Amino acid sequence: MKRLIPVIALAMVLASSPVLAADATLGLDVNSAYVWRGITFNDGVVAQPSLDVTNGSFGVNVWGNYDIDDYGDTLDDNEFSEVDLTVYYGFNVQSLEISLGVIEYLFPAAGGSTHEAYVSLGLPLLGGFSIGTDFYYDFDEVDGYYVDLGLTYDRELFEHLRIEVGARAAYADKDFAVYYGGTDSGFYDYTISLSASYAATQALTITAGINYTDSLDDDALPDGKYGTGVDTNTYGGIGLAYAF
């Protein structure tokens, strides 16, 4: 956890310095399960705090998963099972939004870690629709890649109230699939999501959402428990985000 301290310190310096003129958002999500790329890491209630700080095109993000419920013999309740540290750079080429970054995944309870590099592309379309793709390459423990493609529809229903509907599907190579319990490469998972967000003030946003996820290829992503496959299909939660 020593690596966590300088990243949090950097984020706090960026957020608090008037000279750097950074923007920061502090968030907290409470979800009925922790599902990552179709894989169930906890089928019980989790709290996921985050801090995101941007200064121009440069950004730092700290995100954690705190297990309120345990999950079999693999996760104890009331402790952090994961902390992610991300450094990224975002820019636009005309309407195309591009983000490049590196993520360090820390697993305090298990004592392990791994690293990913990623490229994210987003393009707004007509009528509130947008399309995006993300390419992740784990160059540490997994030595494999995961790529997804998504379509999102965003609309303001009333003043301060927005809804967002999304659908995404992904493909993983054999190294990524085997590391997380599969046997071969293939189309990996899909997720359909629905969320509503309410801007309570200029700084505070409240969000509620529900998701449905499942495997696209059982060889790539099988059914399984304790971080080895699909154990939870439907999950959701509420979140708070405060910008300062």
Please give a structural write-up:
The chain is globular, with a radius of gyration of 18 Å. The mean pLDDT is 92. It has helices at 4-16, 174-179, and strands at 23-31, 34-36, 39-42, 46-55, 58-67, 79-93, 96-107, 112-124, 129-138, 144-158, 161-172, 186-199, 204-215, 234-243. With 244 residues, it is mostly beta strands. The strands form two sheets. The chain has a twelve-stranded antiparallel barrel with strand order 1-4-5-6-7-8-9-10-11-12-13-14. It has a two-stranded antiparallel ribbon with strand order 2-3. The chain has a single domain (4-243), classed as Porin (Beta Barrel). It contains two helices and 14 strands. The protein is 8% helix and 61% strand. A hairpin with a 4-residue loop joins β12 and β13 (204-215).
Number of domains: 1
Q: Give the H and E element order.
A: HEEEEEEEEEEEHEEE
CA distance, first residue to last residue: 27 Å
Report the portion of residues in β strands.
over 45%
Query: Radius of gyration in whole Å, from Cα?
Result: 18 Å
Please state the overall shape, judged from the principal axes of the Cα atoms. globular
User: Any idea of the CATH topology?
Assistant: Porin
CATH architecture title? Beta Barrel
Mean pLDDT: 92
Question: Percentage of helical residues?
Answer: under 10%
Strands across the major sheet, in which order? 1-4-5-6-7-8-9-10-11-12-13-14
Number of strands: 14
CATH superfamily: monomeric porin ompg
Number of helices: 2
Q: How is the biggest beta sheet arranged?
A: 12 strands, antiparallel, barrel
Q: What are the segments in which pLDDT stays under 50 over at least 5 consecutive residues?
A: none
Structural class: mainly beta
**CATH secondary-structure class:** Mainly Beta
